[in-house]
Write a structure and sequence with these properties.
- InterPro entries: DUF7708 (IPR056125), NPHP3-like_N (IPR056884), P-loop_NTPase (IPR027417).
- This is NACHT domain-containing protein.
- The chain contains 42 helices and 50 strands.
- The chain is of the alpha+beta class.
- Among the domains are: 203 residues, no CATH class; 217 residues, P-loop containing nucleotide triphosphate hydrolases (Rossmann fold, 3-Layer(aba) Sandwich); 54 residues; 227 residues, no CATH class; 107 residues, no CATH class.
- Strand 3, helix 17 and strand 4 form a beta-alpha-beta unit.
- The longest helix is centred in the N-terminal third of the chain and has 83 residues.
- It is flat and about 170 Å long.
- The relative contact order is 0.05.
Length: 1503
């Protein structure tokens, strides 16, 4: 609460000091008014004074007496003398005169004084207010101000009293001097108050100045601190920006490293480089640094490619490692990247390029610590392909001064054709870099290898060759004569040592490996004579001889040699280097007594293996702490070459046992892999416990060391084994056993890309490939193997996406929580003849199979599903001959949770004439209308069937029989029926036909895959528009004047348009949501985010995206380009945009909301000209309603209308009891027909967004006929600016489902338009293509809900409430979805997926229609050509998955418990909030259409 002002305090004190009588004076009463201020009171007193002065009496007295008194005042001294000198009577007279003169003077001066003081009070009050504002905080000042106001109040009160007194009374009072003295005293007090206030103000000002000086000093100190803090903040911001830049660059570097995935390969290279560096003796390999070819290579004066070749074991790898280190020291600015090929590790060309690119990236990062946009852009591709790696390496080379590529061991890749092809790709690319002008001066390439014919062909003409063997002999001599640890402790003289070494040098020549092995052997000699004898006679002449001696020294017992043979077989023939733990488990299973179970007691000791295997096998720790994680490798590639050529090396001198058991061959790995996977602990699928996978015995799978290797490579090792009948039976038994399911589960969880899909980018055949998973010989050597392979391929075809998901970077969050849970696969749907169907499934699934086989199918095949999902009918053309057709029809029934059974089979006979068959099955490579009609169709209840134009009805025996008069021979005014509906004896047939055929681009696909549901079905899969299409559109534009008059025509023969509002009540919910002149579709901000908008914008941010700026820029450019000159011709003036004349967007009859513009212009405004050229072809809607009769049908109603846009799969619907038919036309128009009264009316259903077109519009009447429901599938395609198209933006469209419910009039159902009572919208995301021949959506209607299902790999069904306030609806949303995902087969994306909710005690039903995989392409080849083992250019043992194209898979299904299987229903996050007052969902009548010609009668408008 604020304190009272000084004036209010003074007023209160002044009133309190007055007696009660004076408190009631009028002046006091007016002063007590709340709004009274000192200024107001002073002005009021001035007006009172002026009024008093203007009184006539006072003015007269003043006019008469004032001159007299003035004269007498001049003689005041004379009168005083006369009064004092004269005697008494005369003195009295002169005294009285003096009194009169003085009183009259005071009377006249009184009002002058009042007037003067009132004027002075004005400035005084202003000063007081200023003092109050400046020093109001001072109590002394408040006290003085209050006292000054009290004196003013006394003055005003006195003036008011004087002015309101009678003039004579005032005159008499003025006779005495004391009568004006009081007023003078008050004035004096006011002046004194003013003086004291001024003095106090000076004092306060001085104090304030002192405080201000202190405050100024404090402010300066604070500002200095703020300046320092601001500088620190700027420094911090600069540091933050710098750090942000550093973090950004580091993030880019990290992303590039992740994309390259080169870290493991480079770490392996680095370890090998360090190992080789440790093997080099000082002084060796220096000859290369002085070699002239090497010097020319470094300086660039010679060839940029240097090939160092020598026989095996001559130290080429050590020489390469020395060159790597020396080159780095010689040229500090140069970058040296390297790779060592290993004989026991195959690497693809892309892997080697990734390793080299990774080293280049590390070198560039160490120098620049920055990553360019171009480099980052190359690594943002989805696939790390060879082309992308080439581009990245080129960018890195441009950023580096000089680069040396060192590749060692190329001869290791010449062992097989696949390895050489991969190495040759890398070699060729590096040769190209060394010869291109852009990189000629900065690229040097080094190759080192053994002589090979394939290398000679590639390198001899493109490189400088150095024969290293000649120079290596001196290094070998230096190596032998050094202080060898092997000879240091021998008890022989130096002379004897020299003699032995001389002999070794003569025999070793340039072979480092042989020399080192011989030195080790000398250490094992017993005496000097033994040593000399060994050198003279026993010294092996070759490495093979030395290796054979080593194997001869192994214990000759069967157990010992059996163990050694298996160890070497595991190491030599492994597909990758094995770890010690893997070898131990494999040995334990091979040597154990129980082949079905691994006993830990049978696993060999680590210490035993460590003493047994050297020197031929090395143990590489690689920084691991667990000995079992050590990698076991052959110490040199020559050991592998020896064992491959001599697998029987351990058979010589064997004591006991079979010699076959000590054979070192690939069969050992094939045997142990198969035996390992067949263990009893894998007889059941793996399961999770506490986040870890366990086997059937409860053991943790991550402790099984050989498990992953055997699961990945079992079939590859079986390919290397010699096929036999016994092995065939073992493989067959394993595949048929439950262990095979566990193997597939293991591959899915831990084998990267085992179930991925691959292709060869260099090939143009369009094929895709899977990894081979069965032994090649097993599939091609017998029918049983081929059948098992085919069964497994059928499973992979359906579930490879789920099996691939654990290792796929594109896996969705809906699938990842369930990876590895193979019981979610629908095994029974594979059919009882498939061996995999015996595996356990989480759900009750089934397939529609007859005797385990699918029913007849083909291109002319159709299925019908009943409204409750308990019946499925399939029909297929099985024979045709000379215009006679035979169709096989199968009726399947479902009951409870049992598999489906065939209820009825029928063969339907018909003919070409009866069905008009040729109008429906025109060849696909011919020009046909873009709205090709399905040749076969069922009604929603399956009681009626259409084959071509012939209609059939199901009788009491569940057999279809023709309806009389409804065939191709009857005169029904239509050549082809597209849609039909039947109720009782009333039949409605309808079609939407193009007025003239439109040439269409053929994609070769089995149906019309549209990029957009548009006017000409072009741009299928990125197809370019042919030139004849462009000319056709130009011709259409020229001929528009001729066709336009017919396009808007409407024929309603047999009926007339009428409607009645009747007594229909308005909707309570949407009473005010009606179409208004300013209403329009919902804007993008009211719907899902714009796919072209930035992330910030989609979240509601006000920031503009780059796309928006491009749009604005492009729009400005278009506007500037389309601006007309000032001197326009008449024709140019007609080309004005309608927005310059009328607000064309307010006229809803325009089709702009439905138009999908394909022009490059940003503006959708049409031009006003004689006729607006259309870029689409008009269709004609045809509807005719008949009454069935014994003699044929009777026409009840006939209607035709031109349609601007196509509409698909939107049949007419009968009211359950009234004579009402509802049929969607196009562009939102819906016709309501009373076929008895022969009347109709049309209403338009508005789309929910701009630039939106309805793709289909489904209608459904409630069972009691009180409501009608509409489900509209909408596609929104926004025009893309030209600038965005130039930078690669592709056309997309956003999908949505708009569901609306309308109440019908109870009295005038067929005449009164329905009223909107409920609506809901479901956003469906962004699509790029859509097949309208087989839309990937199905609808299931129930009395309260609509179930909308999409054809995807997981169950995506939305339950949409049809009425507001549904108690079963979730939260406030009327759209709900399942809580948990249900995985579907991959073919569900190509099947029709139907969902039927649970009813009573029956579970929910999920039905997937049959799958047609398209026609076989000529390049796909025969199935036999794609079996495993067939050579396919570079893809050996890789087969295509397209060998099943053209086949049809049978329908499948599943029973679901809504709570148990998918957790019930929850609110959908894709439900859109629909705004009011936009007319969305309203059925509004058509407005008078704006005519640019007739309606543009314009006149000027000046504002």
């Amino acid at each position: 609460m604020t304190s009272p002002t000084p004036f209010r305090q003074a007023l209160d004190q002044y009133i309190a000091s007055l007696p009660e009588k004076k408190k009631k004076r009028e002046f006091i009463v007016h002063c007590c008014a709340e709004a009274a201020t000192p200024e107001d009171i002073n002005e009021a007193i001035k007006r009172v004074e002026e009024k008093s002065t203007e009184k006539s009496g006072r003015k007269m007295v003043k006019r008469i007496l004032s001159p007299v008194v003035s004269v007498l005042r001049d003689y005041d001294g004379l009168i005083n003398s006369l009064a004092s000198a004269d005697p008494m009577p005369t003195a009295l007279i002169w005294g009285a005169l003096k009194v009169v003169v003085d009183g009259t003077h005071r009377f006249f001066g009184l009002f002058e004084t009042i007037k003067k003081e009132l004027l002075s009070l004005v400035s005084q009050l202003q000063r007081i207010n200023m003092y109050d504002d400046l020093y109001g905080d001072s109590p002394d000042m408040q006290k003085l101000l209050c006292q000054s106001f009290i004196n003013m109040l006394r003055f005003w009160s006195r003036v008011d009293k004087e002015c309101n007194s009678y003039g004579f009374t005032v005159f008499l009072k003025s006779a005495a001097s004391f009568s004006t003295k009081k007023l003078d005293t008050i004035i004096q007090d006011i002046e004194e108050d003013a003086d004291q206030i001024e003095k106090l103000a000076s004092i306060l000002e001085a104090n304030l100045g002192r405080d201000e000086r202190k405050a100024a000093e404090l402010e300066r100190f604070r500002q200095e601190r703020e300046r320092v803090a601001a500088q620190k903040e700027r420094d911090a911001q600069a540091a933050f920006r710098d750090q942000h830049m550093v973090d950004r660059e580091e993030e880019r570097y990290r992303r590039m490293c992740e994309w390259l995935c080169a870290r493991p390969g480079n770490e392996d290279n680095l370890r090998h480089l360090r190992t080789l560096g440790g093997q080099r003796m000082d002084g060796t390999c220096n000859w290369i640094l002085e070699h002239q070819s090497y010097l020319d290579w470094c300086s660039g004066s010679g060839s940029r490619v240097l090939w160092v070749r020598a026989p095996p074991a001559t130290g080429k790898s050590v020489l390469s490692s020395h060159v790597i280190g020396s080159t780095t020291q010689r040229d500090a600015d140069a970058v040296v990247v390297y790779h060592f090929y290993r004989f026991d590790q195959m690497q693809r060309s892309s892997e080697v390029l990734r390793i080299l690119a990774g080293q280049l990236l590390d070198a560039h990062w160490a120098r620049a610590h920055t990553i360019s946009e171009n480099m980052l852009g190359q690594t943002q591709q989805n696939v790390c392909s060879t082309d992308h790696l080439h581009a990245l390496i080129s960018l890195l080379l441009n950023a580096l001064p000089k680069v040396y590529f060192i590749l060692d061991g190329l001869d290791e890749e010449c062992s097989s054709e696949p390895r050489w092809l991969e190495a040759d790709a890398t070699l060729s690319y590096l040769l190209k870099l060394a010869s291109e002008p852009e990189t000629l001066d900065k690229v040097r390439v080094w190759y080192s290898s053994q002589p090979r014919h394939c290398l000679d062909e590639r390198l001899k003409a493109n490189s400088t060759i150095i024969e290293a063997q000649v120079h290596t002999q001196a290094d070998v001599a230096r190596y032998l004569h050094r202080d060898n640890p092997e000879l240091r402790d021998l008890e022989v003289s130096d002379a004897d040592k020299d003699q032995v070494l001389e002999s070794l040098q003569e025999r070793a020549e340039a072979n480092f490996l042989w020399a080192s092995l011989m030195l080790r052997s000398l250490k094992t000699r017993n005496s000097l004579s033994d040593m000399k004898q060994f050198v003279a006679d026993g010294l092996p002449g070759t490495l093979d001889g030395y290796y054979r001696k080593i194997f001869d020294h192994f214990d000759r017992s069967y157990s010992e040699r059996s163990l050694i043979s298996k160890i070497f077989a595991l190491v030599v023939f492994a597909r990758r280097p094995l770890r010690l733990g893997e070898i131990r488990e494999a040995l334990g299973l091979l040597l154990g007594k129980n082949s079905r179970s691994l006993d830990s007691a049978d696993i060999p000791f680590i210490s035993r293996l460590r003493t047994l295997l050297p020197p031929l096998i090395e143990f590489q720790r690689d920084g691991c702490s667990d000995p079992d994680d050590c990698t076991c490798r052959l110490f040199h590639s020559t050991v592998r070459e020896f064992l491959v050529k001599n697998p029987e090396v351990l058979q010589a001198g064997l004591v006991g046992g079979s010699i076959e058991d000590v054979l070192i061959g690939p069969a050992v790995l094939a045997n142990v892999c198969l035996r390992y996977l067949c263990q009893e602990r894998y007889a059941r699928p793996l399961r999770k416990r506490d986040g870890r996978w366990i086997d059937a015995s409860g053991g943790f799978v991550d402790q099984h060391r050989f498990h992953l290797y055997s699961a990945k490579y079992w079939d590859k090792h079986l390919d290397d084994a010699e096929p036999s009948e016994e092995l065939y039976e073992r493989v067959s038994s394993f595949i048929l056993s439950p262990n095979f399911q566990t193997c597939v589960q293991t591959q899915s969880l831990w084998v990267d890309s085992q179930f991925g899909v691959f292709c060869y980018p260099s090939r143009d055949d369009g094929r895709v490939y899977l990894r081979r998973m069965f032994p090649a010989w097993f599939v091609v050597s017998g029918s049983a193997g081929l059948r098992l392979w085919s069964d497994f391929r059928a499973f992979i075809h359906e579930w490879k996406y789920f099996l691939h998901s654990p290792t796929a970077c594109t896996s969705t969050s809906a699938i990842l929580p369930y990876v590895g849970e193979l019981d979610r696969c629908w095994w029974p749907t594979l059919g009882p003849r498939n061996f995999l169907s015996r595996f356990k499934c989480k759900y009750t699934t089934f397939a529609f199979l007859q005797d385990g086989l699918p029913t007849n199918g083909g291109w002319h095949y159709r299925e019908g599903v009943s409204e409750d999902g308990r019946e499925l009918i399939s029909i297929a053309l099985v024979s045709s001959s000379h215009g006679a057709f035979t169709f096989e029809c199968n009726i399947w029934k479902l009951s409870g949770t049992t598999p489906p059974r065939i209820h009825k089979q029928q063969h339907i006979k018909t003919s070409d004439q009866l069905t008009n068959w040729r109008n429906y099955v025109a060849k696909r490579n011919q020009e046909t209308t873009s709205t090709r009609v399905s040749s076969i169709a069922f009604s929603s209840c399956n009681n009626y069937l259409r084959i071509g134009t012939q209609l059939f009805m199901r009788n009491s025996n569940d057999e279809y029989e023709p309806i009389v008069g409804f065939d191709g021979l009857a005169n029904m005014h239509v050549a082809g029926i597209e849609e039909f509906a039947v109720r009782g004896n009333i039949v409605a047939v309808a079609s939407r036909r193009h007025a003239r055929p439109i040439p269409r681009y053929t994609s070769g696909l089995p149906d019309d895959n549209l990029e957009f549901v548009g006017f000409d079905f072009l741009r299928v899969e990125g197809a370019h528009r042919p030139a004849w299409i462009e000319s056709r559109h130009d011709q259409e534009a020229d001929d528009e004047d001729e066709s336009e008059s017919d396009s808007d025509s409407e024929s309603d023969e047999g009926g007339y348009e009428t409607w009645s509002e009747g007594s229909t009540e308005l909707s309570d919910t949407y009473e005010y949501d009606v179409i208004t002149p300013w209403a329009g579709p919902m804007s993008d901000t009211d719907s899902e985010p714009d796919p072209y908008a930035s992330d910030d914008e989609s979240e509601g941010s006000s920031k503009s995206s780059v796309v928006d700026s491009l749009k604005d820029e492009d729009q400005d450019k278009d506007e500037s380009n389309t601006s007309a000159p000032e001197d326009k011709s008449d024709s140019e003036e007609e080309d004005l945009p309608p927005s310059a004349v009328v607000n064309w967007a307010q006229f809803h009859e325009d089709d702009d909301d439905y138009q999908w513009s394909d022009s490059d212009s940003d503006s959708d405004a049409p031009r006003i000209r004689k006729r607006q050229p259309k870029t689409y072809s008009r269709s004609t809607a045809f509807l005719e309603i008949f009454a069935k009769g014994a003699d044929g049908p009777t026409s009840l109603f006939h209607f035709t209308k031109s349609l601007p846009f196509p509409l698909y799969n939107s049949p007419p619907v009968f009211h359950p009891t009234k004579s009402l038919v509802v049929w969607p036309l196009s562009a939102g128009d819906v016709i309501f027909v009373d076929y008895v009264a022969k009347t109709y009316f049309i209403r338009k259903l508005r789309p929910s967004t701009q630039h939106t077109r309805q793709i289909f519009m489904k209608c459904y009447f409630s069972p009691d006929g009180s409501y009608v429901h509409f489900a509209c599938l909408e596609g929104q395609k926004k025009p893309i600016p030209r600038v965005l198209k130039k930078i690669g933006f592709k056309d997309t469209f956003k999908m949505a489902l708009l569901v609306s419910t309308y109440r019908l009039s109870s009295r005038k159902t067929t005449r009164s338009p329905p009223i909107l009572v409920h609506r809901a919208r479901l956003a469906l995301g962004v699509e790029t293509t859509l097949s309208v021949a087989q839309l990937p959506f199905t609808l299931t209607w129930t009395p309260k809900h609509l179930y909308f299902t999409r054809s995807t790999e997981t169950l995506r069904v939305a339950r949409v409430s049809l009425f507001p306030g549904d108690k079963n609806a979730v939260s406030d949303g009327s759209i709900s979805v399942p809580r948990k995902p249900i995985l579907l087969p991959e073919s569900a994306t190509r099947r029709a997926v139907h969902f039927f909710p649970a009813r009573d005690s029956d579970p929910a039903i999920l039905l997937l229609g049959s799958e047609s995989r398209g026609e076989t392409h000529p390049n796909d080849g025969r199935i036999d050509d794609q079996l495993p083992g067939k050579q396919n250019q570079n893809a050996a043992s890789i087969y295509s998955i397209k060998n099943t194209m053209g086949l049809r898979s049978s329908p499948i299904g599943c029973y679901l418990k809504e709570e148990g299987d998918f957790g019930g229903w929850c609110k959908s996050q894709d439900a859109s909030k629909l705004p009011n007052d936009l007319g969305i969902g309203q059925l509004d009548h058509r407005l008078e259409k704006f005519d640019p010609e007739d309606d543009c009668d314009l006149e000027p408008y000046f504002r």
